[in-house]
Amino acid sequence: MSEQGTRIRPADHPEPVVLYVTHYCGYCMMAKALLERLDVPYRSIDVTTDPAARAELVERTGRRTVPQIFIHGRSIGGYQELHELHARGALAAMVASAAS
Question: Alpha carbon of 39 to those of 20, 23, 52, 71, 83: distances in Å?
Answer without folding.
Answer: 19, 21, 29, 14, 15
